[in-house]
Amino acid sequence: MTTRTTDAGSVVSLGDDDLESVVGVDGPALVEFHAEWCGACQRMKPHLETIAAETDATVLTVDIESHLETAIEFGAQSTPTFVLFVNGQPVKQLRGAQTEQSLRDLVGRYNS
């Protein structure tokens, strides 16, 4: 399932076809590769929603089971995997559950 919203400050769930067009926007885009059955991924949802609402970063999620090729392309071998894109290019990858502050710090380093 692919969902797109245009509301600023919301987490967007994307699929194979539209990931590259969205991460190509100016500024940082934080992508979480996740799975519905992943408990750590479920615990990350409130952190991602807060970061989307309180920073200028675009926050996206990609379900690895529905979009396996995209997950492989970006090296998401475990869940959750976070990839930060800046101006369309992947610049940093974090694996496993993260604190909200570590994700904020990551986005903040690349926020213009």
Automatic annotation (TrEMBL):
InterPro entries: Thioredoxin-like_sf, Thioredoxin_CS, Thioredoxin_domain. It comes from the Archaea. Pfam families: Thioredoxin (PF00085). It comes from Natronomonas aquatica. PROSITE patterns: THIOREDOXIN_1, THIOREDOXIN_2. SUPFAM superfamilies: Thioredoxin-like (SSF52833). One of its GO terms (molecular function) is protein-disulfide reductase activity. This is Thioredoxin family protein. Residues 1-112 form the Thioredoxin domain. The keyword Cell wall biogenesis/degradation does not apply.
